[in-house]
Design a protein that fits this description.
six-stranded parallel beta sheet; 15% strand; binds manganese (II) ion; homotetramer; 17 helices; alpha/beta
């Protein structure tokens, strides 16, 4: 029997931590845990203590004897870790507010992981993931890094390709949500379906085959605009054009709406912004309410409210992935991992989000084969945008950041493009040391 | 000494034919011509006769004895041709008016070779190039096809890759115009410069090195927004963002403005449209005036007015290319030809517009090597858009046409996208037999 | 519950058919069978009737009611088949005798699936697989084709890439035998191991990871020259050079001995030939003895002798694969299937032999990633040799056949090369209609 | 007018230096020279002084005033160089004797640039080219490195890809000799022909087109086995199999005989070795005689004998290349340069030997497009062998050296393979510091 594991969660003060605890508790028989460390920073001290308290109460109410530690000392926590999960948010929700507000003020999409906001989030996050890996190399050189900090694909690409941590797997709840909805839509048992996902994080397509090898994709496309069609709750459901989907014969992901129905999505987002401010501001309120709940020392389960949020199932995917590695389960999951030819029109060392087999040997991607021509073009362009973004995040190269902005279809290519980039850089100055020279120059101007 | 050649020009009634004649006359010593056939269709009968008359007068005023034939019988003309040039326009300027008007009415770019208009032009033109090649296979199986019918890149890709006419070379005046301007900007003798162009038609970049191997690209970038910076006269000169160009360290082509400064270009185009209608309507007037001039039996030279038009130097490039082949000159030209690895991020069998050596053996592209990441993404996306467009043009597949529209950055991805496509299909019904079933369905609805 | 299936075996008169029956019997609960058709040709009539009798007795002795049909009418058999397995041998063992004898007489390797013999077998077999597929297209358009006729990789490539039967899976016993041996060598439970195979049929490498993700490859390499190291019984176990294997850190397949220890293998093969004639002649004797056994109407189980032959576990692999498809098992198997990027240094449409997940949707290959440089070179060269061989088999192009011969490392590049090719073509005239013109020319000379 | 240049020749004591001088003298009008430095090592002191004396006499007899310096101080020489040419031989002819003798004793090919000998030469030479580049980076950071030290392709790949000296061009006389012979064979003016070379050093193919674009390749293939068919004098002219060449429709290079007619070439080489010892020993004698001639202070021209040696035209190619760069000539030459897609089945960063345009901007390779399948396989395998060899040369990795040996078709894959490698390593101990640990181990055993 294998030894029980030590789990470390960076950004442990997240409101989603109870989902993570619940996920571990229900998998404990396959995944015995020695201890759990919730790490946060000074600004998150109160939150990590509150949620750490709830976490401990959840374990205490379970049949299992697991100690939950909370700490602001990342290095202490990382020592001898087996699995490190990342769910931190550099600059907290206040930074997200800026990511969403500034583009919106110029009539662009203000969104957390797509468009200008997603790129800025990458700029802030990638240097931090580099620091975490530097610590891991020293303190837990054999640990797995399970990343679900957004933008999950770019952060995972930086971790594997640039910081060299091969044992990184990136996660997202979008494939999970689709794979929860589709068996119901098709009237099938989930275990009978065969999935083939290919793309990158928040920009992937998939096909589904049934227990007889029949391609269910055409049938599922017809359900795509339904309420329970598999799109995460936090994405506005503008109608996909059906003839487009029928032509490609692939199921898009929910985030494709930002690209395939761009103007409608933008109009809706701007209207929402004008009426209710940014999503992040709403999240802040929700979080406040959640932490009030968490303080209740009578509470020892995950509150129901958490399941209805856009981030639901992220933590569950992480637990599922960790169990599959630990227990060598060889199961299908959709994860961000090194391409290695799985999508043959992208480089071998790109990070892609694809159907993979998860075992003790890590994520083994399944070869998808050729994409139809339009999807190939979309994907190559988006990957190029990611590469420029990551490059800019690593080096603070302003020109490269501008190239990423101009290439991104959700940023209008205009004189405001550069202005939005500049305002965002200045607004996030505290978290963008790599851009400090340019930011000084912008502030001086 | 090689034999004098027979040249056939499809779309011979074009107002640009005098430039073509002038080009041949000034190269006659290296490129002796036996006879020239100007071919047109019934609707172009009057024009081909007028311009054919001028063409004959131009030759008669030259030291050379060349007979110009005008005909509506393409097959008669093609018999034993050595070089076939194509400058036809399916549906004439009236079709172009629709290509420009309909998208404009929906707030999209209405342009001849980019965006929705360019795609529709491809839909109309590609089947006709297929018919011409079918005739050539029978009547002049060894002839070279020198294409400058727009969209020149897509038409050339269809000719080579789909209709199998390997001896096709595609031309455009955009590289010519840049290579005319840049020596002046750099204070250099044109023959001293070394050019490295890479991309596709109307979407290429280049680098320039001087006689010492010094990279002049950074210096020339600083001149790019100047009046005589190398952009064709017909493209509005919105300012390129300098930090973007400095970052990529490549000289964009004039048409890149539609992509890099998209909103400004669109705003300007829509304003122009509101004020003066479509470009095509202005062209129609200009053409009318030109043909009035051409009728003058005293005229036996190319009128000066022609040089100021957007299409200037197209014919000259064709003459230059034909001479280089005939006289085995091994000179540098920028042409559309089979990639074969010249741009390693595109397929070997894609048609690209690159620096090539032109000789009796045809166009030999020079290997450009890796593009920077953003440009790679742009190019792969645009090539995918071209592939979908060509596929739709060949098959009449409506879904594929829609995929091309949604992928094209100059078409807004919205419910109007499909409406614009539908209106354009119906408007061009006469020239789109491959789409007839869908058009009937649209008309019935 | 799914319906019971109809299984058709082309080359049903093979001495291995009892293994196939045993395989189906032991899997019947997961794979219910309606009827089994054993198809053979006139020359195999007696054998198919003998083995068909044994087959029926085996089923009659089982708890299951399955009818075994024997027929010489392939089309009758194929009607409404669900799975077609191919184990035929064009020209029977007499053809194999020639494949082995003629190269041996010139001091070259005479082997069934490698070197000159394997190429000639491809020349004879590929046209026949084309005919079978032509019949299947008409008579059982939804059937799976499970090929284990050798050379299994090239025959599968012809079936999928050239004859267009996408639902083809190619099998071999070499990976099976390795995966039977290695758990014992490593002291592990078979289900705990994680395999990563990559290459082409009879020329693949693999890595093995244990239940903790530990790479067992280095440890298993040290066992490779042991008697039970995982090499099929029919391959002489010349010693692999250990420093070579340690450098590549991949487990080679048994057939790699012909390449990595070429001279020793050749010397041994020639000695065997001088002493005992060809393998095929020995097989003929063995087969004769087996069929004597099979005639015994008291026999209703697979005789033990069969398990010791080189072809053991081929049929078992076929049964395993068919069950995995039928029962949508999503299990790991090593099969020949379309590359699709799994081995990124080969074309997407090449057929490769790789770790795949087998389900109702067919074989989904797992992306292996980059091979080390030497193995990449070996593999690309061998795939090119296969491509030339297949091309020659399809067209009868003698020059292409010669290119394949000269490229194949097991054929000495010498004046005898061409002579051996010529003699083999003439010797197999009856089965090489595509080469008939060249053969007449050779015979006339 | 550009400034006169400083030229530095590493290995200046070579017997070929007079050819280099002659080449510069006859090109002086286009390529004015300031000074020439002949650099050698202590062991070459006498030779460099003798040949330096002749060199100076040659210039003194010319109309040009050029000073020739001889030195053992490489760094002094490199200071402010414009062009550095490399023609050194690590270990001198004595090392080559070992390269040729040891494999021959085991019945393998003992040849200077192919097989075991070529690989060992790479092991000795690559570290030295690294040292030269280290000096150049400091002392002449803008200089061009014109390499014709063998194995020219691998040395050039190391220089560009591993040591990062982008301004390196590799040369060889094989293409030159072919391009001298073929116009005569075809009855054409050299300037009328269009060449398309593709491959790697000593392993390339080409096509030739005439002034009408007609493919002369088939016609020239028929002359390939003739005495003046374009093969360098030092390669035994075993007959190429004509049907092989007709099938590929490419002209092989002379060195392809070692691969396409392997056994005959090997038999001949071994016979030559038994009768006359190694080539290197003969060269030693020839060199001795040449240096006797060079000592003659009356001699002030290149002696005729030099032109008949295998290395003739190497120096001339170097002069031609340097002039083309200096004078920005934009001419066709066949050189080793970075692939960049020119041969699309090899990596972009591989060094290939291809038709290129040479100008002040360096070598711009022309895209060749797809090779036929067999040649693709040959080339990919040979490039992989080169990659392993270079890797071993850089790191002293014995396993990698062994992988290169086993992959090389000119080394028999046998137990002797490793023995030959071991003996060669020990024999060259003095020049293989990177392998010292392994060599000590071998010597101890
Ligand atoms: Mn996500
Ligand atoms: Mn143009
Ligand atoms: Mn096999
Ligand atoms: Mn050479």
């Amino acid at each position: 029997m294998k030894e029980a594991v030590k789990i470390v969660t960076i950004g442990g003060g997240s409101s989603y931590t109870p989902e993570l605890m619940e996920g571990f508790i229900k998998r404990y028989e396959d995944l015995p845990i020695r201890e759990i460390w919730l790490v946060d920073i000074e600004d998150g001290k109160e939150k990590v203590e509150i949620v750490g308290g709830l976490a401990q109460r959840m374990w205490d109410a379970s049949p299992y004897d697991v100690k939950v530690y909370t700490t602001l000392d990342r290095r202490e926590a990382l020592k001898d870790a087996d699995f490190v999960t990342t769910q931190f948010r550099v600059g907290l929700l206040d930074a997200r507010i800026k990511d969403e507000r500034i583009p919106s003020l110029y009539g662009m999409l203000g969104q957390e992981t797509n468009g200008a906001g997603g790129m800025l989030k990458a700029f802030r996050t990638i240097p931090v993931i580099g620091e975490i890996i530097r610590d891991m190399r020293e303190l837990c050189p054999d640990a797995w890094l399970i990343n679900f900090t957004n933008p999950s694909g770019m952060v995972t690409e930086a971790a594997i390709k640039h910081f060299g941590w091969k044992k990184t797997i990136g996660l997202c709840n979008v494939p999970t949500i689709a794979m929860m909805a589709e068996p119901k839509l098709a009237g099938k048992d989930p275990k009978d379906l065969n999935y083939r996902f290919a793309g990158i994080n928040h920009f992937h397509w998939h096909k589904v085959f049934d227990e007889n090898g029949k391609d269910l994709t055409p049938e599922l496309i017809e359900h795509i605009n339904e309420k329970n069609g598999g799109t995460p709750a936090n994405i506005y459901q503008a109608e996909f054009p059906m003839e487009l989907l029928r032509s490609m014969n692939l199921l898009p992901c929910g985030y494709h709406r930002y690209y395939y129905v761009k103007q409608t999505m933008l109009d809706h987002a701007l209207e929402e912004f004008r009426e209710g401010g940014t999503r992040a501001e709403q999240m802040k309120q929700t979080e406040k309410e959640l932490f009030e709940l968490y303080k209740n020392t009578e509470l020892h389960t995950k509150p129901e409210q958490l399941s209805k949020r856009g981030g639901a199932y992220y933590s569950d995917a992480a637990c599922e992935c960790i169990r599959a590695i630990y227990a060598n389960q060889k199961i299908h999951m959709v994860v961000s991992t090194q391409n290695n030819g799985a999508i043959s029109c992208l480089d071998d060392d790109s990070i892609v989000e694809v159907s993979s087999i998860i075992s003790a040997a890590g994520a083994q991607p399944m070869a998808f084969g050729k994409l139809p021509p339009a999807e190939k073009g979309w994907l190559q362009m988006m990957k190029a945008m990611e590469e420029c973004t990551i490059q800019a995040a690593l080096t603070g190269d302003y020109g490269m950041a501008l190239e990423a902005f101009v290439l991104n279809p959700l940023v209008e290519n205009n004189k405001d493009t550069q202005r939005v980039l500049d305002e965002l850089l200045v607004a996030h100055e505290k978290y963008l040391p790599q851009f400090s020279e340019k930011i000084q120059e912008l502030k001086a101007a």
